[in-house]
Design goal:
By secondary structure, the chain is an alpha/beta fold. Helices cover 24% and strands 19% of the residues. The chain has 4 helices and 7 strands, in the order H-E-H-E-E-H-E-H-E-E-E. The strands form 2 sheets. The chain has a 4-stranded antiparallel sheet, with no helix packed on it. Strands 1-2-3 form a 3-stranded parallel sheet, with helices on one face.
């Protein structure tokens, strides 16, 4: 938000903005400031913490990432508990229904990458429609392999 950044950064090279600091108000301010230039549908922020929601108008800020609207503190806790980002290619053979059946029940979709390179983010307002050829990026608890090494016996 500094004037120096305004002069030195070419914001035209970026198509999307994600504000993911531990300060909900700052995230909202960044999204509100850059929304007109980038397009309001292209700016996103982490979920606002429950205690901070009264201080911000729902018309400020960006789209809330993740369907659950999870905030910084919860994401930080998940990272400390070894959650991982995963990518999964959806195909005709391995469709969205198979993916949903296989993934961990707590996993959250973050976005899908279309074959043409565009991104479609999952937000608290809804998930993007996924088609064969899309790559899904999700955030999930790390699943330990159930296969045991023979040396453990």
């Amino acid at each position: 938000l500094s004037e120096i950044a305004e002069f030195r950064l070419d914001f035209n090279r970026f198509r999307y903005l994600i504000a993911a600091t531990d300060n909900d108000e700052y995230n909202a301010l960044i999204c509100t400031d850059h929304g007109p230039e980038m397009g309001r549908v292209n700016v996103f922020q982490l979920g606002r913490e429950e205690h901070d929601q009264r201080g911000l108008s729902f018309t400020l800020g960006g789209g809330t990432l993740f369907s659950s609207g999870v905030g910084f503190e919860e994401l930080d806790e998940r990272m400390e508990n070894d959650w991982v980002f995963q990518k999964t290619r959806i195909t005709e053979e391995y469709d969205i229904d198979a993916y949903l059946a296989d993934r961990h029940e707590e996993a959250e979709s973050l976005l899908s990458v279309r074959p043409n390179g565009t991104l479609a983010f999952a937000t608290s307002a809804g998930r993007p429609k996924v088609q064969p050829g899309d790559i899904l990026i999700s955030f999930s608890p790390k699943v330990e392999s159930e296969a045991k090494d023979d040396s453990d016996n």
